[in-house]
Amino acid sequence: MNIGLDMMGGDLAPLEVVKGIQLYLQSKFIEANIFCIGDEAIVKPLIEEQLVSSPYLHVVHAPEVIGYHEHPTKALKEKQKSSIAIGFYMLASGKIDAFISAGNTGAMLVGAMYSIKALPGVLRPTVSTIVPKLSGKTGLLLDVGLNADCKPEQLNQFAILGSLYSQHILNIANPKVGLMNVGEEEGKGNILSQATYPLLKDNTAINFIGNVEGRDFFNDKADVMVCDGFTGNIILKMAETLYEVAESRGFGKDAYFNRFHYENYGGSPVLGVAKPVIIGHGISSALAFKNMIDLAEKMLQTDLCGKMKALFETAQN
Amino acid sequence: MNIGLDMMGGDLAPLEVVKGIQLYLQSKFIEANIFCIGDEAIVKPLIEEQLVSSPYLHVVHAPEVIGYHEHPTKALKEKQKSSIAIGFYMLASGKIDAFISAGNTGAMLVGAMYSIKALPGVLRPTVSTIVPKLSGKTGLLLDVGLNADCKPEQLNQFAILGSLYSQHILNIANPKVGLMNVGEEEGKGNILSQATYPLLKDNTAINFIGNVEGRDFFNDKADVMVCDGFTGNIILKMAETLYEVAESRGFGKDAYFNRFHYENYGGSPVLGVAKPVIIGHGISSALAFKNMIDLAEKMLQTDLCGKMKALFETAQN
């Protein structure tokens, strides 16, 4: 398998990306070729300096960089030699099998949707995040920001995509799907959640257990929590802050609060597209990059995108 | 001033209500007459047993109780001798000036809206919650559940109501108002937040500082955070759980996490109605009831509802 990394994306790039690759290469039996996409003049010396030498490592020259505040579509069109544009070109043409970047999130999403495209039958791809549960288990929340306004049919698809991810990547058999809502009973909620409930209830591809509430975020009521991207993004950013809150109160070393640290969960995969695309946090560190490579590897090993494609193909017929 | 308490509302009622009144009566120079609305045969002996004797204490007989799972409108109509129905009758007729209950939330909201009614010019009343900030300050979040689906004009009014509450009850001069959203820049968000932003920007009755995100919940970026009741309810219930999460990790005694304990913040006031109505948490304890009486007292002392009325009257003309 071939995994591509944007060497120029992230506040701490390219140094932390190189260090992350080093961590990955040292960690285990290597299964993947790593394609380092970035400015050769910067990346090559850095790799040498960090003594990361490996037959699995390949540098792909990309002289341009898409900045954080550039307009995604415009930047992708105008900067065809940028690390993100070249990454998606390589992904679409099969030169790499997965692409990781902690750069411009918008450009990553636009690239994912327009270069490798949504799977047939998928209305809109989605971005998920893992949720550290108090029990030690790992839940999944989606959408966390790609789709601010959603239709019930989209939430129903997120439930399927999230279930497959939970099953194959988080190793949870028959994951319980909950609809993030403001009350337990059917009929509670806003117009969207009221209309979504019956779709989830009738969906035989998932194990729907009903509504969950804000208080269930940390417990094991549901493994997969589904909501629109507006709600999900606010929950995600609140949860991400818990590590800092705990740290400021002197509990930064607590194992549970530590799991909310962005470093430890790596990046957010885009689900519902044909190939693994992982978007990193802007301040991704070496450990975060290492975790994202591990995640890409696991998504490829389990052929998660293929399983998603097959399920949506069946649903269409 | 006369404050009415539903003695029968809440999982721990009536004992904890009586104990809460006792805490209140012991705490300071008493300014309010307390009207204990509930079944005389139960309430009177309990008051005597707890040795709560005071010239400020009056028992009002209400032989019926509205249960947690009863339909609000139906129950209020059919159980006119319930503590909640009698409470609102007394409030509407001026026999009491404020009403507190930890009973059926729906019945409290229906009662607030149909017996004492929304202030002229207020589209929909709202329910807020206080937000413990890491700095030690106290923020306000609204709506937290009364209005699952909102129009931009409603959010704009919540901003005004929340600002007045923050100013007069939380003693924050010129409170900073933020729109809870998924990005910092104007133009970010879902259809609702995109349409709300310009209204808040043009609203001269508030100090609008722009969008806030989930990560700003705990910091001082905004004193008043405005959102629809679906989003707000999920945030509220997540935040309420933080005390339990911290406790389960062994940090239950931490002063900051303790502020998320429902006991310490008491109840949620309904804003935008003509008189103070405070809804308690289902598991309200003595301390929670005491804090709710204090809050009602402060809302009356500052004539908060009068100030809200005046501002909306000005806005109409």
From TrEMBL, chains A, B:
Whom does it interact with, and what assembly results?
A: Homodimer. Probably interacts with PlsY.
* Molecular function, one GO term: phosphate:acyl-[acyl carrier protein] acyltransferase activity
Q: Which UniProt keywords apply?
A: Acyltransferase, Cytoplasm, Lipid biosynthesis, Lipid metabolism, Phospholipid biosynthesis, Phospholipid metabolism, Transferase
User: Where can this protein be found?
Assistant: Cytoplasm
Has UniProt tagged this entry with the keyword Lipid biosynthesis? yes
What organism, scientifically named, is this protein from?
Parasediminibacterium paludis
* Matches recorded under InterPro entries: FA_synthesis, Phospholipid_synth_PlsX-like
Name the domain of life this protein comes from.
Bacteria
Chief localization: cytoplasm
EC assignment: the record states 2.3.1.274
User: Any idea what this protein is called?
Assistant: Phosphate acyltransferase
